[in-house]
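Session log. Operator J.P. requested a structure for one protein chain; no other inputs attached. Running the standard single-chain path with C-alpha cell output.
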Amino acid sequence: MSANQPHRPGVQKYIDASQKLLAQRRAAVARMKPMKFDTIAVHGLYTLEESLERNQGAVIEPLYLSASQGYADADELEAALSYLVPTWCYTRIANPTTYYLEWVLALLEGYRTGHDTSCLVTASGMSAIAAAVDPFLVKQKDGPERMNFVTSIQLYGGTYQHFAVRKMKERGIECRWVLHPNDMQEWKSKLDEDTRFLYMEMPSNPQQSFCDVRALADLAHSFGVPVIVDATCATPALMRPIAHGVDIVVHSLTKSITSGGFAIGGALISRKPITTKVRNDDPMFKESFAEYVKFWPYRDNGPAASPVNAIFALNDLRTLRSKMDLVSANCQTVAEFLAKHPKVYQVDFLGLPGHPLHQVARKYMKLVDSDDGTGNEVNRYGHLMSFRVDGAPENARKVFDSFKLIHRATDLGRIKSVATIPAISTHQQQGEEARRMADVPPQLIRLCVGGEHPDDVIADLDQALRSVK
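Structure written below.
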C-alpha cells in the first residue's frame, strides 16, 4: 500500500503522526553522516532526544525482549501491517534493538563512500548470505530458464557448501567457480547473459584470497549484474567495498564485529541503488535492496536475529576501529615471525610484502580515519592468517595439539587467539578435490590472532612448532 493513497481517517491520522518520527530519523542520519567513524560506531542513530523522550534517559540503547508490539486500535494496526508507518510488529519481522544495530551498520559500511546504504541483520552469517543471493535466483519467465552465478572458489566452507549443494545439487542452479579471483579475464570468461550475480569473499577464509575490487565491480556492471562481497574478516574498519562499486556486502557478525564471542548474527548491507537485470515489481528491490529483503523474503522466511544477540553486537561494535587496529598489528607481528620459522613452509597473510596479492590488498585495506604522518591512511590487513607446517599432515596435527594458549576451535574473529585445521573442520565437507582447487591443504593451520600481547602468542607457537622434529 502507498502512503499517498486515500485511507480511512483513523489510518491517515497515524500516517500523519508518523511523519514527525521519520523527520527526526532523517535529521539524525544527516547529523551523524559527517561525524567520524568512531563517533558513529558509539552513537549510531540512538539520539539524546530519543533517550530522554522515549527511553527514560537510558544512555545505552534498550534491549527489547518482547516478542510482539501492541497497537492502540484497528486503524494503527492496519497502518502498521501495511507498512504505512514505522513499526516493528513482531520480532520475527523486526525489533527496536535490532533496528539500532541495522542503522549503525548501514552508516559504517557507507561511511564516506558517497552512497546511501540500508541494512538487514539476520540470525547468522550464513542466513545473511542466503538472504543476499536468493532474490536474484528467481525465475523470470514461464517454463525452464537458464541461470547461473559466478563465484571465487576460495570461500568459507559453509558458503561453498551452500553454493555447491543447496544451489547446484538441490536446485539445479549453475555455480561457476573462479580459481584465480584476481584474474579479471577468468571472471569475464565465466560471465554470460544468464549470469545473475558475482560473489567474492575477501580476505578469504582461510587462504587470504583477494582481488581488485573496483575492477571486479566494473566488470560485473558491464554485464548488468551486481557484485556481492563477504567482508567479514575486514569489517568496515578496514575496507568498505561499497566505496569501490560493490553492490551488496555481507558479514558474519559473529566474527570480528562481535569479537567478545557472546553473539551469533549476520548482516546484509546494500548501496542505493544496486545494479541488476533481475525484474521485480517492487521498486525497493533495486533502490534499497536490504530493505526489500527485510520487508518481504526475510519476513516470510524467518531468519530473525535475537535482540539479545543484537545488543551484544551493538556493544562490541562501538570499539571496532581500535580493536581491528590492535589485532591487525598483532597478526602482522605474528605473521612475520612465522614467515621466518624453519618448520613453516608458507604463511598466508596479505600484510607480508612477499604475498602475491599484497599490492592489490594494499590498495584497499586501510584503517579508517588513520594517518601515517603523510596524510594517508595506515594499511592494516586484519587478524586472520594461515600457516603451513612443513612435512606430512600429521605434523600440523602435532603443532595444533601442542597449543597451550591458543584455543583450538572453528571460531574466528575473537579477542582471544583461535586456531583450527580447515581441512578437517570448516572445509571438511568440501571434499579433497575441491579443497585442492581452493588451496586448502591438510598442512594448513588457520590462526586468528587476538588481543593478547603478540610475544605471548609467538611463544606459544614456537613451543608448539618445536613438537615437529
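Operator note: The CA atoms of residues 69 and 89 lie 5 Å apart.
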